[in-house]
Design a protein that fits this description.
Elements: H1 5-13, H2 19-32, E1 39-42, H3 44-60, E2 73-77, H4 104-111, E3 115-120, H5 154-161, E4 167-172, H6 178-184, E5 187-190, E6 210-215, H7 218-228, E7 258-262, H8 272-287, E8 291-295, H9 303-318, H10 336-347, H11 350-362, H12 369-391, E9 396-400, H13 409-413, H14 418-422, H15 426-434, E10 438-445, E11 451-457, H16 463-477, H17 480-487
Helix pairs in contact: 2-3, 7-16, 9-11, 9-12, 12-15
């Protein structure tokens, strides 16, 4: 499956490929990769029926009358509501929950002719950085199953990386699409806050949640973005201004581009091979005619602390709805309070309960100014530093995405390394705090044949420009050859 979405749709529209044939190829990939535990719910039977119907429709209509995603298998993270298909958030408390409505972004994919092949595994309620905190099992990295896939959207990214689907949706609140994309060697994109509707995405942190897109090619990310971007009356945070056609240049150029290298992004613990790759790609930008200059974002070092205070505070509020009364798992108790306590103690894992408790602590009246208000001030300072950097003439920032290539499971799961594992998000979290668009592009492999990727960041709502630069980087690196080899 080495075609882009556009190429595959074109083949199906001209009759040289059927939707059923394409679906069967993807299902073969699903079977080969089942030990990676990337999928929570496989929607194969319904997809077979829809693929046959699309093939019949193709016989009746001209290609131009068919949808832009005609017969393309896609996957979505299991925190997107899907009518008639269970939505678990990889948690026991929602293990049998079946919504009666579909998230706006997912519905747009379906309306365009896409086939929802799978709901994918994740860290429970998207609280994690390795996709190991799941009631449905740990997600494995397709490049080396002893390595973590990254999180919290690990299942979506692995489904793309192993060729089970062309593209997948995840949620990115602090790096949850970009982190696993870097570990697994795919393109992981986080849009400007509000560019894609969050309606139907089960909330982690309302003020930072975004719908992310993962695909093997930058062109495919842009193709999906063009379908799902835009204002939604059901999401008050979605951007109201009209969204232009998302169309990338055939041969993007970076000549004359001002590329910023933030020297504050040399975080402690960043591996030598990541720093060397960062330096190598910066040199390639310069050789291609870009102006590579230094940039300063000094508050980056405070990003993780501010993020976790704000995240845990919003989690404490959002998780109050899981009480075992209206839906989901329900335990027993002699009183209402005991019912709540027992339901949450059994239905939620340690990581989720820890965030709820910490968030309630931060929001206590005696702590509110000390923690929550201070974290909000740091958030504003970080956003202002990004704005000042871009207003100085810098077009794009080039940064690492994680501290090192995918860590081993035994290291990642060791409780002594829990805080260190969170440090992987230092390069991605500040983007969410500021609401900016960012994308991770795989650029090469390390000595152990594990992917290395770098992050690009542009000003708010400069998403098309961002993806054009990413496409240039992708074309230069030719990383797709490694992915094709991995899949075969």
């Amino acid at each position: 499956m080495k075609k882009t979405i556009f190429e595959a749709v074109k083949s199906m529209k001209n009759g040289s490929l059927t939707s059923t044939q394409l679906l069967n190829t993807c299902l073969e990939r699903v079977e080969k990769a089942k030990d990676l535990q990337a999928i929570v719910t496989l929607n194969d039977e319904l997809c077979k029926i829809k693929a046959a119907a699309l093939d019949a429709k193709r016989e009746e209509l001209s290609g131009d009358e068919l949808g832009p995603l005609h017969g393309i298998p896609v996957a979505v993270k299991d925190n997107f509501s899907t009518a008639g298909i269970r939505t678990t958030c990889a948690s026991r408390i929602l293990s049998d929950y079946v919504p009666n409505y579909t998230a706006t972004a997912v519905q747009k994919l379906l309306s365009a002719g896409g086939l929802l092949l799978a709901k994918t595994n994740m860290d429970e309620f998207a609280m994690g950085a390795g996709s190991v905190e799941s009631h449905m099992g740990e997600v494995r990295n397709p490049w080396n199953t002893d390595r973590v896939a990254g999180g919290s959207s690990g299942g979506s990214i692995v489904s793309v990386a192993c060729g089970a689907v062309f593209a997948a949706l995840g949620s990115d609140t602090g790096g949850s699409v970009r982190n696993p994309a870097c570990f697994c060697g795919v393109v992981g994109y986080k849009p400007s806050y509000g560019l894609i509707s969050r309606h139907g995405l089960i909330s982690l942190e309302n003020s930072m949640d975004t719908v992310g897109i993962a695909a093997r090619y930058v062109d495919d990310v842009a193709y999906i973005l063009d379908i799902i971007a835009g204002w939604d009356a059901k999401d008050s945070t979605s951007v109201k201004r009209p969204v232009d056609k998302v169309q990338l240049d055939e041969e993007p150029s970076v000549k004359g581009l001002n590329v910023g290298i933030p020297y504050d992004f040399h975080a402690p613990g960043t591996s030598r091979e990541v720093i060397d790759e960062w330096s190598r790609i910066a040199d390639e930008f310069e050789r291609a005619g870009a102006n590579v200059v230094s940039a300063s974002l000094p508050s980056t070092q405070f990003g993780i602390d501010a993020y976790y205070v704000l995240c845990k505070s919003e989690v404490a509020s959002n998780m109050a709805r899981y009480d075992g009364i209206e839906y989901g798992f329900r335990s027993n108790g002699e009183s209402t309070e005991q019912l709540y306590a027992s339901t949450r103690a059994i239905g939620l894992n340690d990581a989720v309960r820890e965030r709820i408790l910490a968030g309630n602590y931060f929001l206590l009246s005696r702590n509110y100014k000390k923690y929550y208000e201070k974290a909000q001030k740091v958030r504003r300072k970080i956003a202002n530093e990004f704005n000042d950097t871009f207003n100085s003439g810098i077009d794009v920032l080039l940064t690492p995405a994680v501290l090192e290539p995918a860590p081993r499971f035994d290291w990642f799961k060791d409780s002594r390394n829990r805080v260190k594992s969170q440090d992987h998000d230092i390069y991605t979290i500040t983007v969410n705090l500021a609401g900016l668009p960012a994308v991770v592009v795989p650029t090469g492999l390390n000595k152990e044949n594990l992917p290395i990727g770098l992050q690009l960041i542009t000003p708010y709502l400069n998403d098309v420009k961002l993806l054009n630069i990413a496409k240039w980087l992708e074309n230069y690196c030719s990383f797709k050859q490694f992915v094709d080899r991995q899949m075969n």
